[in-house]
Each structure stands twice: as C-alpha cells, then as structure tokens.
Amino acid sequence: MQDARDHREKPQHQSGLGEGIVRLGPLTGVVPVARELGVDPEEILEPLGYTTAQFDDPDFEIPYVIAAEVLARCAETTQSHHFGLLLGIRAHPSLLGIPGFLLLNAPDVGAALEALVQNLDLHDHGGEAFLDSQGNSTLLGYTIHQTNVKACEQIYDLSISVGCNIMRHLCGGSWNPTEVCLSRNAPPDLKPYRRFYGTRVRFNSDLNVLVFPNRWLKHKIPRADALLYRHMEREANALHLPREANVTRDVRRILRKSMLNGHFTATKIARHLCMHERTLHRRLHEQGTSYQLELDTIRDEIARQLLTGSATPIVRIAAMLNYSSVSAFNRAFKRWNGSTPARWRTENNASPDT
Fold first, then answer.
1. Does residue 240 register a pLDDT over 90?
2. How confident is the model at residue 329 (pLDDT cuts 50, 70, 90)?
3. Could you write out the three-class secondary structure of the chain?
4. What is the CATH number of the domain that holds 261?
5. Averaged over 242-258, what is the pLDDT?
6. What is the structure's pLDDT at 171?
7. 180 and 221 inside one domain
8. By mean pLDDT, which of 53-62, 71-80, 154-163, 311-320 is the weakest?
C-alpha cells in the first residue's frame, strides 16, 4: 500500500483548472418539485440571482457550486431530505443533452453507458460518471470532483436516480438494479428510495453506484436510431477537439476512478496515458504540480466528502484511500487541513464516527 510521504505541500482545494460548469438539465425540475412541496421557488432562486424562467431551460449553464447551493437551499427550505431523488425520478435522459441523445440511440446498453461516461463532460464539468466491472456485476456510478460544494448527498441522490432512469429507458420500465449504494447518511424516511429503486439501498457506502448483472450490457436498445447515433457521436467528437490537452486534468480523472481498486501508481497511470513515467512527471512539473500532490489532492477531496456527507467510519475511509493504517491517514489529513479527520467531521456537523 502507498502512504502519502511527508510532503510540505498542501493539496490544492481549488482545482486550478477552473470552476466547473453544469447545464441545468435535470435541475429544471427544481421549480415544479418545490411547488409540489408547497414552497415558492423564487424564494430559493432569487437570493442566488436567478429566476424561475431561467430554470425552465435545460441548456442554461450555471457554476457547479451554485447548482449545489440551489440543491442545499431546496432541501432546507422544503424540509425534504431526498429532494435530489425527487428531481432524478422525473428526469428523462434527454435532459443531459448530447450525452443523453447518444445513449438513447446506441446499439446496446454497454455502448450507451460508455457513451455516457466518455461524453458527460459536455453536460457536467463538476463530476463524472464511471463504469466498472466486479465479477458478474457492473457498477454504474458518479463521483464529484468539484471542490467545496454543498449538498453532496443531494447531488448523489440526483445523479444515481438519473442513472436508474437511464437504465429503465434502455432496458424497460420494470428494470431494477440488484443493489444501490449511496455514500450519504440514511435519511429519516427510506420509503421513497425503496419505492423508486425496487431493491436494497445501502447507505454510508464508499461509492455512489447502481449495481446490476453484466448481462444487461449486451441488451439491444429498442427504437435506437443508428443514423442519429452516428451524427451525435460526430458532434460530440467535434466538441471535444478544441479542448486543450491537460495532463493534470487527465491524471486527476484517472486517479478518481482508480480509487475503486487501489491501482493508482504513477507507472500505471503513465501507461494508461500512453507515455513513459518520466514523461508524466515532466509534464506535471511543467503544469506546476506533481504526481504525489495530485494523489494527495484527490485523497483529500474524497476524504472530506465522506467525512462531511456520511457516517463512514474513519478506518474504512483510510482503507479505501489505500493507507496502510489509520494513523498514517490521520497524519496526512492533519497536514492538509490543520485538524484530524475526527475533528473535521465534528466541526462540519456530520454524523460522528462509529
């Protein structure tokens, strides 16, 4: 296992790559859902400088941190612990824009989900979808990488419920996952989750994922339009071309996904990026960073999310981040944030460690 060495540098809590932007997409449900819960949506949006008319347009873009603030205010004002779930339940995949139209017209579920993972950045610059196989099961999940955002539990509720809606559009309305994992604390009322997902929901998980059998990946998508799929694929590729190559961004993306299996050595990441390890270190140095600093940055992001948004035991967080011991994790976290993980959790009003 790897430990963060005694580096003097502190992980960059700001991304250094610009603040994330997100299309409203599924957030267009904020206005009707707030009204259904007896709250005037203007009370939520006006203090942030937005109008209900703007929230009718799925292509309208706002900063990711503002979207998180909107969800935090929605949950607080409506007193709904599952506001994000309510948004996701009513979200059609087309609200994701190009990624949504791509996946709806892919030849099969596997291709659809790969299209989602590869192109979600055309909708969302603050987080990303991932796909992973574990034995006979597939995991479809979402992870936040924008730092310092509120209401992570609402964001994950929204993202995973949208993922479930995607699978039901691809596989049929009666489709259910075999398990749902959410990193958030269990809400007071579990019935909305059980009713929507139709299966076991595990809270305080390390990941935010839908779990389902691998066989669904080969399922053919009814009414898929091959010509539209090809057209949307070309458009997505064209939109990706102007993006400047950024090794730091790519390393962070791979590190976040690699936390699933602990395989995040510099050698393996360099191989994934089709370059020599020395080249990787040189390119990162040119961009003002290093592999170890990026590893610490991602570890710190994930640790703070779990400490403030779940009751996941600290010993489990340390293991998930591939530390050899809790004391090694405690030392690293204190170096980054000036306090121990336990104190951070208490000061940020999360559930105490168990």
1. no
2. very high
3. CCCCCCCCCCCCCCCCCCCCEEECHHHHHHHHHHHHCCCCHHHHHHHHCCCCCHHHCCCCEEEHHHHHHHHHHHHHHHCCCCHHHHHHHCCCHHHHCHHHHHHHCCCEHHHHHHHHHHHHHHCECCEEEEEEEECCEEEEEEEECCCCCCCHHHHHHHHHHHHHHHHHHHHCCCCCCCEEECCCCCCCCCHHHHHHHCCCEECCCCCCEEEEEHHHHHCECCCCCHHHHHHHHHHHHHHHCCCCCCHHHHHHHHHHHHCCCCCCCHHHHHHHCCCCHHHHHHHHHHCCCCHHHHHHHHHHHHHHHHHHHCCCCHHHHHHHCCCCCHHHHHHHHHHHHCCCHHHHHHHCCCCCCC
4. 1.10.10.60
5. 75
6. 96
7. yes
8. 311-320
- Whether 81 and 228 map to the same domain: the answer is yes
Q: Do 133 and 254 belong to one domain?
A: no
* This model's pTM is above 0.85: no
Both 263 and 175 in one domain: the answer is no
**Residue 151 pLDDT more than 80?**
yes
Average pLDDT of the segment spanning 209-221: 96
94 in a structural domain: yes
Q: Which domain, by its residues, includes 313?
A: 247-347
pLDDT at 187 over 90: yes
